Here is the input.
Amino acid sequence: MAMVCPQCCSEYDQRLECPRCDVRLIFHDPRSSPGGGASRAGWQQSIWGRILIGLILAQGVYHGVRHLATAGLLALDGADAQTLWSGLDGFLMLQGMQLVGLFFGGLLAGAGQRQGAAYGMVLGIWNGVLVVLIQPSMAEQFNTVTLYGLPLLQAGVGALAGWLGGLIWRPLTPV
Here is the structure.
């Protein structure tokens, strides 16, 4: 186990104090980056990794809640699944489910980040684009305002959730 003196930068094994400087040695991980900044954080801690994980969570929550609501409404009403989501009520319910999923994804993407609102905003834009691309059955309900407004609305909700995630789980202060 390599220990390094913070003053003279000498390495020692099996010691707690530097024999030259009489200062406490700090642990040096040889696998860490040579600059001593961020240690070997995986792809999950990168900007795009956080956004990808938040996007997967947002889409997963949305699709899970949608299937649960479909099952519940079909069990109660016995209505056709296709006509269930085609009206304005169904469209608004789908939008609410997407925003709930996006909120949880934005919280996760912005947690512990100083730029949490920016991470959430990018997550919201990508989530809105995915919603427009994945749901071709709702293409007749999408007009030009909806096509451009949906990613913008979700960007706002994502920014709010990312900011809130950064506020709840504060970033570490630099030493």
